[in-house]
Amino acid sequence: MNQKTTTGFPPAWAPAAAAALLALAGCASQPDNYYTLASPVAEAAPPAAGAAPIYIELAPVAVPERLARPQMVVGRASGGVQVDVLEQHRWAASFENELRDALSSGIAERLGAIDVTKAGRPGAQPVWRIAVQVRQFDAVDGGRVEAGFSWTLRRADEARILSCQLNVGEPVARGIDALAQGAQRVTAAAAAAIARSVSAAQANAAATACAL
Known about the structure:
By secondary structure, the protein is an alpha/beta fold. Helix content is 28%, strand content 27%. Strand 3 (71-75) and strand 4 form a beta hairpin. Helix 2 (95-111) crosses helix 3 (176-203). The longest helix has 28 residues, at 176-203.
């Protein structure tokens, strides 16, 4: 009869297995962090009695392909061509969707407008159609968030199209929370500029150039 002999020592593969389990446990202990680009806005003054409400419709926001993801994309303080895609620091939705929601709510709140993008507009009410393109949105931890926005405005019952641009930057402290807050401030600045351009175009039906 064959008998198995035990030596009292763990098998040779046991240390490697234990190390792998510890590594997995370490990964599991680091939860994902989620951030939003939306920020509170003071309510706009109610429209004057008898004034027609403003309706807006914001198209999907066009962003560079490298940013079209939920993970935060961060440049390095040393500069160069490399960026870091932060798997555990993410926007609450894919960046372009998070940006669109933040811009839409920010513009509507500043104008006291009604966003009909998802609900549809009542009857034949004219709608301001807004199409936004992000030319640049670069974030560096402990450095700056720099962004460039372009957008067009067109009222549904008019032929004129107004084209606008904004370049905006915000210094940020070290840390991902500070970086996300800087991105939030940049987004708020873009929403405010777009809202001003709609107000200016609404007030001057002859305008063909963007006014911020």
